[in-house]
Amino acid sequence: MKELENEFHRKARLVAKGFEEDSLDEIPKNSPTCEKQSLRLILSIIASKRWSINSVDIKTAFLQGEKMQREVYLRPPKEVKATGKVWRLNKCVYGLVDASLKWYEKVKATLLDCGGTVSKIDSAVFYWYNEKGLTGVLAVHVDDFLWAGSSTFEKSVVSRIRDMFKVGKESCESFKYLGLDLSQENETIVLSQQDYVRMLKTVLIDKDRVKTSPLSSSEQTLLRSKIGQLLWLARQTRPDIAFDVAAISSKIKSSTIEDLKKVNKIIRKVQNDPVSLQFQNLGHDVKFILFSDASFGNLPDGGSQGGYVVFLMGDDGKVNPITWQSKKLRRVVRSTLASEALALADGVDCVISLAALFKELMHNENDLMHTPVDCFVDNKDLYHAIYSDKPVGEKRLRVEINAIKQLLQGGELKEVKWIQTNEQIANVLTKHGASGQDILRCFEKGLLNSSLL
Asked: What average pLDDT score do residues 9-15 get?
């Protein structure tokens, strides 16, 4: 049953047991979907272009994909009553490992035929432009499209999509997309997850249970489920809970009642303090802002947590949130300097790709070779190592430091700046107890501390 405009409609789907097919490893199956940071960057561009956001849902998408190149036979469902017969598939049905890929190939061919260009950075992002610049953009997530553009773009491209595919629900300016609540008013787009947050349930815990009591197998399963729900929330709209959720996740095998109580506390926190992301019109002159931070050896296994947050900032100091990460560093390090350097390297890797995507989408609208990128760190040793000719003592670390130096020399990074620890809004991504108010204020108000401008 599916609810549509307060009415319930019966739906049935033919599902193949694709896992039973021979030679699964030899079948190409990887299908791109629009990345989170790409979607937020697109929302920022849409706001600055003063375009309306739109979504399109494609009906029975897999059955509209490219024709199959191999022979696959299917036993009909018993309800068909086709005894002694098998079906040969012409299209990939739901359940086959390459169903998503065949659908993507059809979408890509159609959009390219409509004059679109597929992004070199994110293969699920397509854009259109003329001699004046960008005229339209479309993000693909399987059968859900998000698009925006000029009136000409809608007439020449979106209308062809409606003709080429069986289109389901279409929405404009206020709708749910991939579990995210999107709304638009004037030149601002608001992204939130309030409907999702309201559905979160705390875990019932017997008051007589001691907090150090180990969890039963069923309780561990329940804890994993809650962690999964909160991790998705942390990655989409709530960076302030990312470290605490990751810390609980890291000790799941030795989890206790105390961990369940921590999860309940996080759920109550996100329900009592709602958060939304604001995407504003930033104007023409923009740059990327990266804050990176690390905590040396603060994880139970001796590892270190690294984190970063990236904003797109206009010349008046307004910012739009683009992406963030809170993650265990990829190797064990020997010093605070090393942990901070690896966290910065991870952030730089991300922001460089975002800057490339931005330049790609803003075709012919910016004469700069690179979109400026400013990096902020609160570790003086790292700052001095980057701007000093003297190599750091830890030889393995020289690779990371020199890579950042080369990006500065080549202009892909504009500057690395040192800031006070109390100005480092990425702190909440790497340590327990750090305030998340600064980063959330940037998300909701769209303004950075004026001292950082």
From this structure: 77
Given a cut of 80, whether residue 10 has pLDDT beyond it is no
Non-local (6+) Cβ contacts of 182 within 8 A are 43, 53, 55, 174, 175, 176, 189, 190, 191
d(CA 352, CA 192): 26
* Separation between Cα atoms, residue 189 and residue 48, nearest integer Å: 10
Q: pLDDT band at 2, cuts 50/70/90?
A: low
pTM score of the predicted model? 0.92
User: Residue ranges of the domains in the chain?
Assistant: 2-30+54-172, 197-453
pLDDT number for residue 82: 74
* Residue pair 53/189 in contact by the 8 Å Cβ criterion: yes
Degrees (nearest 5) of the Cα angle 106, 107, 112?
A: 100
Q: How many whole angstroms from its chain centre is CA 354?
A: 12
Contact in structure between 357 and 122 (CB atoms under 8 Å): yes
Q: Match domain 197-453 to its CATH number in 3.30.420.10, 3.10.180.10, 3.40.50.720, 1.20.1730.10.
A: 3.30.420.10
Question: With the CA atoms of 348, 352, 357 and 363 taken in that order, what torsion angle do they form, in degrees rounded to the nearest 10?
Answer: 140
Q: Measured between alpha carbons, how far is 377 from 341 in angstroms, rounded to an integer? A: 9
Question: What gap in Å lies between CA 150 and CA 163, rounded to an integer?
Answer: 19
Cα separations in angstroms, 22 against 17, 66, 72, 89, 285? 11, 21, 10, 15, 54
Q: How far apart are CA 176 and CA 171, in angstroms?
A: 9
Q: What is the pLDDT of residues 111-120, one digit of tens each?
A: 999 999 999 9
Q: Which two tokens stand for residue 398?
A: 């020289």
Rg (CA), the chain: 24
pLDDT tens, residue by residue, 181-238? 999 998 899 999 999 999 999 998 888 889 899 999 999 999 999 999 999 999 999 9
Instruction: Output DSSP code: residue 299.
Output: S
